[in-house]
Amino acid sequence: MSELMRKDNQPAWKSQTYLTGVAAGALFGLVAAYMYSRAAEEDAQRNGGAPNTVSTGEVIGLGLAALAMVRQIAEMGKGPTKKK
Predict the structure, then answer these.
(1) DSSP structure string for 45-81
(2) If you average pLDDT over residues 20-32, what whole number do you get?
(3) In Å, how far are 35, 72, 83 from 44, measured between CA atoms?
(4) DSSP type of residue 82
(5) Which of 35, 37, 40, 57 could, after both became Cys, cross-link 51 (CB 3.0–4.6 A)?
(6) Cα dihedral 22, 13, 10, 80 in deg (nearest 10)
(7) Over the stretch 39-84, which tens digit does the pLDDT of each residue have?
């Protein structure tokens, strides 16, 4: 049991989960930012100027999609439900 607990009584799996989440989030954010900037740059070249602005509705929709993804990830931690 001592292998699963650190000196400060925090489970080791919890720290590993946080680090994995931070790394995955950073990687996802980096890829998303790269793809967005590439698409915006192509749009600006086609239009001969600055790229189009992002509408408020698009940002709200993206935020709701991100919230749904976070909720699904949280549900994964609960495990399977038992059938009666």
Answers:
(1) HHHTSSPPPPPHHHHHHHHHHHHHHHHHHHHHTT-PP
(2) 96
(3) 14, 36, 55
(4) P
(5) 40
(6) 100
(7) 999 988 888 888 888 899 999 999 999 999 999 999 988 877 777 6
- Whether the CA torsion 69, 75, 76, 77 is positive or negative: it is positive
Cα Dmax for the chain: 64
d(CA 51, CA 44): 4
CA dihedral 39, 43, 49, 50 (to 10 degrees): -50
Whole-angstrom distance, CA of residue 84 vs CA of residue 1: 32
Q: How many CA atoms within 13 Å lie on the side-chain side of 50? A: 3
Say what the pLDDT of residue 9 is.
Answer: 64
The enclosing H or E element of 31 equals helix 12-47
By three-state DSSP, how is residue 5 classified? Answer: strand
